[in-house]
Design goal:
By secondary structure, the chain is an all-alpha fold. It is built from 18 helices and no strands.
Length: 430
């Protein structure tokens, strides 16, 4: 495959289309996590309060467990039929899954079928994200000039964080305006249904995206072929998994799990928690762009190592502050973690694209990244709840995080610096 050159105007237009699609994908995907404690009693009412929360987060984790499946199906489409086809399919899948989720009857209305249908919808969302996030980062990095590759590819993460921010803000507004009783009765459906018009806009914009590379061979889209491609490049797959695991565990612990599960009696489910969480993700957006820019100027490997060391230093005090239930300490804790997390998110798209062969880039990137999230990061709210609720080990979550960060750091030390090379040059030297 040969990389295609595009004008500055064309790059700006397609970056907008890619970013808006990511906003929808991650808004729909994340809003379930913010509503987990509300949905638990509605779909798992016959269990204890702790079991309800665990069950709700287990369904949240199902979406991540389905990401590798989506990557296996959608990644080859991006490699063989083009990035545009894959990006249109992913946003359509997410929109339909979320629409159905917003219309689901509860356990009180249809019994056991309610949680079963919720799981199926979550599976559809997970499959969609399995191709969307990595596909959009791949597309953005491929279309970008060399000196702006990190900056422009960071827009995929900007879309992701914007989606999380909108999901958090929607949950916050619902609780503030309607109260817990109304949210449990009917208002929980609103966030899922709001994604439908955004879905229509994203499909319209993406249908006119130019291709970044010529189409590859179309004769084999089988899972077996994808599996063979991945196993032949297992070292690169392991590098990707190692690089992204630590920072994603940090994000899901501090910005998904902590807002829902604070120390008993402190501030659990208080509206201000979601408000602070929303504001913290708002300041992360410019930091993501900063991370991409810094990696373009000083190198992705160097900035990654510095940021992970920062996370290792601040993780323990930040977790203590966030679990205190005190507003100011909660905000400081999220700020301490949010800065290095955002910088890492801003540069990782370009970093991984540069170490991945072009012919199987969508497949390898999508599958490896999805496995990392499914096995280690997306399940971290469930694992953290198990540590704190079942084992009564408050430091279990941060210990889990630090192990993931050390693995990421070890892998980064083994990588060369590639930020000044074209994608063709990088592929020829690795």
């Amino acid at each position: 495959m040969q990389q295609t050159q595009h004008s500055k105007e064309g790059i700006a237009r397609v970056m907008l289309a890619a970013t808006i699609g990511n906003v929808l994908e991650w808004y729909d995907f994340a809003v379930y996590g913010y509503l987990a404690t509300t949905l638990g009693p509605l779909f798992f009412p016959n269990e204890s309060q702790t079991a309800q929360t665990l069950s709700a987060f287990a369904v949240f984790a199902v979406g991540y467990l389905m990401r590798p499946v989506g990557a296996m199906v959608l990644g080859p489409i991006g490699d063989r039929f083009g990035r545009r086809a894959m990006l249109v399919i992913t946003v359509l899948m997410m929109g339909l899954s979320s629409l159905v989720m917003g219309l689901l009857p509860t356990f009180a209305q249809i019994g056991l079928a309610a949680p079963v249908l919720m799981v199926l919808c979550r599976m559809g969302q997970g499959m969609s994200v399995g191709g969307e996030y990595t596909g959009s980062m791949t597309y953005s990095a491929e279309i970008a000039p060399i000196r702006w590759r990190g900056t422009l590819s960071s827009f995929a993460t900007v879309g992701c964080l914007t989606g999380f921010l909108l999901g958090s803000a929607t949950d916050w507004i619902l609780k503030e305006q309607f109260g817990a009783a109304a949210v449990s009765a009917w208002a929980w459906r609103v966030p899922f249904l709001l994604g439908l018009p955004i879905c229509a806009l994203a499909i319209w914009l993406r249908s006119s995206l130019p291709e970044t590379q010529t189409q590859g061979a179309k004769e084999d889209l089988s899972v077996g072929k994808v599996f063979t491609d991945i196993t032949r490049n297992y070292r690169k797959a392991f590098e990707i998994i190692s690089i992204v695991t630590g920072v994603n565990i940090a994000f899901y612990l501090f910005f998904v799990w902590v807002p829902d599960l604070l120390k008993p009696g402190a501030a659990n489910n208080e509206p201000w928690v979601q408000g602070f969480n929303t504001m913290s993700m708002a300041y992360q957006i410019p930091l993501v762009l900063l991370g991409g820019w810094l990696s373009d100027r000083f190198g992705r490997r160097l900035i990654s190592i510095i940021s992970i060391v920062m996370l290792l230093i601040v993780s323990v005090p930040a977790m203590h502050l966030c679990q205190s239930g005190i507003k100011s300490e909660f905000a400081i804790g999220q700020l301490l973690v949010g800065i290095p997390v955002s910088i890492l998110f801003g540069l990782q798209g370009a970093l991984i694209v540069e170490i991945t062969p072009a012919a199987i880039r969508c497949s390898l990137f999508s599958v490896a990244y999805s496995l990392a999230i499914a096995l280690f990061a997306g399940t971290s709210p469930l694992i953290a709840t198990w540590f704190t609720e079942s084992l009564k080990w408050q430091w279990g979550p941060v210990t889990y995080l630090m192990v993931g960060l050390l693995v990421s750091l070890w892998t980064l030390f083994t990588l060369p610096e590639t930020h000044r090379q074209s994608l063709v040059e990088v592929n020829s030297t690795r």
